[in-house]
Amino acid sequence: MSGAGAPDFFYREAQRLGYVARSAFKLLQMQKQHKLITPGASVLDLGCAPGAWLQVACQSLGALEKGGAVVGIDLKKMKAPSSHCDSRVRTVCADVMSLLKEQVRAMSPQERGFSVILSDMCPTVSGITAKDTALSCQLGMRALSLAVGKVPLPCSAGDSNTELHLNSTGLDANEVGVLRRGGNLVIKLLESEENAGFMKFCKRRFTKVSWLRPKATRSCSREIYLICQGLR
């Protein structure tokens, strides 16, 4: 596998097929293995820039007449890519960390919530492992909180007596998430011991939970995806 930034098979394939980034193949693999997005689904894409996952999500909705919607949120102001996206895709420029659940729910069709939530959010990697891991964990917990509501998680896999409550600041105390019952959730994290806490919590809330390191992930990357299916 090529080093970071160097053209490789997935980079070239993305250009050939009209995807804006090689990351499209990560979601394509998840979709092939887990069928996360079904025709007519409502999809929320957190950290959507540059838009490759918007493209794959829209493709997975099926023909336009089947309906469905894809909403992408990112700190960067961007438009949905012209290739592989249609009128069912829209983007919102906002900070996921400060949005209230009611605001996110209002973005969904008929304000009924989303059937799939994808989080490809990742901190700018500093090279300081502890710092990068903590930021990744924070982003992951925010995605989980938006999906299922108030979330207590162990700060460390080895310390079951210490809990970190996402909503302890009172920013968003709503215990009801925006993921519909039976819905699916994907969260990107950096590999760390803290990830065991995510797995333990999600196993109680979803019928199937698994880890995946997609083939399109660069060899130098520590990223891994937690795939949760069937919200109870």
From TrEMBL:
Pfam families, A to Z: FtsJ (PF01728)
Keyword Methyltransferase: yes
Stored SUPFAM superfamilies: S-adenosyl-L-methionine-dependent methyltransferases
GO biological process: RNA methylation
GO molecular function: rRNA (uridine-2'-O-)-methyltransferase activity
Keywords in alphabetical order: Methyltransferase, rRNA processing, S-adenosyl-L-methionine, Transferase
Assigned protein family: Belongs to the class I-like SAM-binding methyltransferase superfamily. RNA methyltransferase RlmE family.
Protein name: rRNA methyltransferase 2, mitochondrial
Species, as recorded: Musa acuminata subsp. malaccensis
Lineage per the UniProt record: Eukaryota, Viridiplantae, Streptophyta, Embryophyta, Tracheophyta
